[in-house]
Amino acid sequence: MEYTLIKELSRLNKNEKLILVEALWDSIAADPDQVEVPEYHQSIIEERLQTLKEDKANGKSWNEIRKNYL
Q1: SS3 67
Q2: pLDDT above 80: residue 57
Q3: What is the model's pLDDT at position 39?
Q4: Most-buried pick from 17, 26, 34, 69 (CB within 10 A)?
């Protein structure tokens, strides 16, 4: 069955695949408590938050970064 699904999905064009990926991502993001964050990722986040706390003058918010780069 899994192979059949993959075969069917491979027939989609790029736009259809992007729509599918967006829909899958939205369904995952709709319930973030169901997504387990690996310990390694959590430790990196804590490390970066600590760095920001120690050096606020050089830190930038996500909104600042988005405005400048996106």
Answers
A1: helix
A2: no
A3: 95
A4: 17
The position carrying tokens 């259809």 is: 16
The answer to whether 28 touches 35, Cβ cutoff 8 Å, is: yes
The letter for the amino acid at 48 is R
DSSP string, 1-66: -HHHHHHHHHTS-HHHHHHHHHHHHHHHHT-GGGSPPPHHHHHHHHHHHHHHHH-TTT---HHHHH
Amino acid, single-letter form, for residue 13? N
Tokens of 50: 């600590």
Residue 3 is encoded by which pair of tokens?
A: 């192979």
Torsion over CA of 33, 63, 51 and 28, rounded to 10 degrees? 20
The pLDDT tens digits for 18-27 are 999 999 999 9
